[in-house]
Amino acid sequence: MDPFPLLENHTIILEALAVIIVIYYLSNIYQNTKKPISAPEASGAWPILGHFKLFNGSSGLPHVAFASMADKYGPIFTVRLGVRRVMLVSDWAIAKEIFTTHDVIVSYRPKYLAAKILGHNYASFTFAPYGPYWRGIRKIISLELLSSSQLEKLKYVRVDELENSITNLLELWKEKKDSEGRVLVEMNNWFWELNMNTMLRMVAGKRYSGAVDGEDDKEMKKRREVMREWFQYLGQFVVADALPFLGWLDIGGYVKIMNRVAREVDSMVGKWLDEHRQKIASGDDTEAKDAIDVMIEVVEADDSVNYDVDTIIKATCTSLIVSSADTTTVMLTWTLSLLLNNRHVLKKAQEELETHVGKDRQVNESDIKNLVYLQAIIKETLRLYPAGFLGGPRAFSKDCTVAGYHVPKDTWLLINMWKLHRDPTIWSEPCEFRPERFLTENHKDVDVIGANFELIPFGAGRRSCPGMGLAVQMLHMVLATLLQKFEMSTPNNEPVDMTASAGLTNAKASPLEVLVSPRFPPMMV
Q1: Residue 234: pLDDT band by 50, 70, 90 thresholds?
Q2: Which residues pair with 394 in a beta bridge?
Q3: pLDDT tens digits, residue range 175-184?
């Protein structure tokens, strides 16, 4: 009989336990090596709401806050918008990877309430999910509405509206000029009315200011108010976007307002659509076709997404009108602000105009190719002040790996262009306004169309802005015309306040008030 049976049994048990423990730890080590690594998450989130305060602008400018976070966490990190994960990127190489390798995956848009309500339940191509419907609308916009040939056909609209705006500016000068021969003009409004009139005529044959077609001033005023409200609330995040289960609550009353604005815009654009159909039926459509005319011809209902023809046309045309007018206004306002704060650049641009155009005729679109310094001014403005500092929000449609980090499906994506465009490894003195940098060997071939990822003011990839060609045309022509015809300065020669406001677009926070006087005798302007 073994005198130590219990000792042997205990030894066997201990050995078995040791083996189990070793296997457990080895398994954990293996699992940890296999577990995907996520991008760092920023601290400072509120309980439940996460970093919601950054998105609604209640704690300052989101792009600036996110830029500070990037200094701490790196060029790719995440924040929380309630239950949603949002990834912030501020590096051109990572942006290039996203918009090339993962472009299809990030061609989706996040679904938030403002986009749903104001975007006709996502029928608007701006917010529509990536797929056959979106590709079809994008094709119509690119080939029919904003193609080079269509823009050329409607060139007379751009020319007319610019001439009208210049004439109005001269009339204002004649009526209200001071003892020094200058008139104070709020240029934000001047740019807005010019761009809105241009887009309304190109899309619907209407005007934003100046009643036409028998309309009264009351109808025109209502149009102005509702168009401004539409874009104002389009970038509004509400609590239900962070916490969908609170969708039944309308905290702040924003949903009620957005529903009212959506109804008014739908009614207004629907009226224009009816007028166009009546005009076509009567055979009274001899003028160049505007966007609604073209849409009536080419749009077919897509039963797979439950949108009828009228909804598709109204949603598309509303987005074209308001988004184009607003973003172009924002960019022109920043351009002129930068020039007024850098008078030597303004003067150099005017000298270039005198060299290549002269004083005896008006600058036109064919002159722009020779105005290389003017082009550099526009590029430098778009580098420092793109229309939206955080671009258009995207959403990942499936899991993927970006810059070595695992990104779960449904993560939202924001590109912080404010930070990306100021990368000191790419741009010398990145915060300085220096148009000359685009005339040098390093940057002279850099363009804004999304091919150079260190400069992507209109976005990149499949969902880059389809109206960038028109926007660039407007920026060049409006700026060239103003600089050719007018001298501009600020009251008391004070610097322009360059503070931006929070919102979908980075509008200037304060009005741009400018003292304007003709450079030549009025009869020559």
Answers
A1: confident
A2: 413
A3: 999 999 999 9
Residue 346 three-state SS = helix
Instruction: Identify the CA nearest to 154 among candidates 86, 205, 107, 194.
Output: 205
Note the Cα 433 to chain centre separation in Å.
21
Domains and CATH numbers, the chain: 35-118+388-421 (3.30.43.20)
Q: Which long-range contacts (CB under 8 A, 24 or more apart) does 40-43 make?
A: 40/73, 40/74, 40/77, 40/78, 41/77, 41/78, 41/79, 41/80, 42/69, 42/72, 42/73, 42/77, 42/78, 42/79
User: Strand, helix or coil at 77?
Assistant: strand
Q: Are 387 and 327 in contact (CB under 8 A)?
A: yes
- pLDDT of 171 above 60: yes
Residue 58 has pLDDT above 70, yes or no: no
Closest to 386 in 3D by CA, of 481, 455, 476:
455
**Model confidence at 523: pLDDT above 70:** no
- Residue 137 to residue 115: CA distance in whole angstroms: 17
List, in order, residues 6 or more apart from 420 with CB less than 8 Å away. 89, 90, 91, 92, 95, 454, 456
User: What distance in Å separates the CA atoms of residue 74 and residue 405, rounded to the nearest whole number?
Assistant: 12
Do 508 and 334 meet the contact criterion of CB atoms below 8 Å apart? Answer: yes
Residue in the block written with tokens 């309308």:
250
Q: What is the 8-class DSSP label of residue 41?
A: B
With beta carbons less than 8 A apart as the criterion, state whether 51 and 69 touch.
no
Residue with structure tokens 């403005």?
A: 381
DSSP H or E stretch at residue 414: strand 412-415
Measured between alpha carbons, how far is 459 from 342 in angstroms, rounded to an integer? 27
Percent of the chain having pLDDT more than 70?
Answer: 88
Q: Has residue 165 got a pLDDT over 90?
A: yes
Q: What's the Cα-to-Cα distance from 181 to each of 165, 187, 493, 519, rounded to whole Å?
A: 19, 18, 16, 11
The residues near 466 (Cβ < 8 Å, ≥ 6 apart) are 125, 138, 141, 142, 146
Separation of first and last alpha carbons in the chain: 122
Q: What is the dihedral of CA 318, 323, 324, 328, to 10 degrees?
A: 150
Is residue 222 over pLDDT 90? Answer: no
Note whether 115 and 127 are within 8 A (CB).
Answer: yes
CB 504 within 8 A of CB 390: no
pLDDT tens-digit map of 347-403: 999 999 999 999 889 999 999 999 999 999 999 999 999 998 998 899 999 999 999
Nearest to 212 by CA among 201, 222, 202: 201
Residues 249, 239 contacting (CB under 8 angstroms): yes
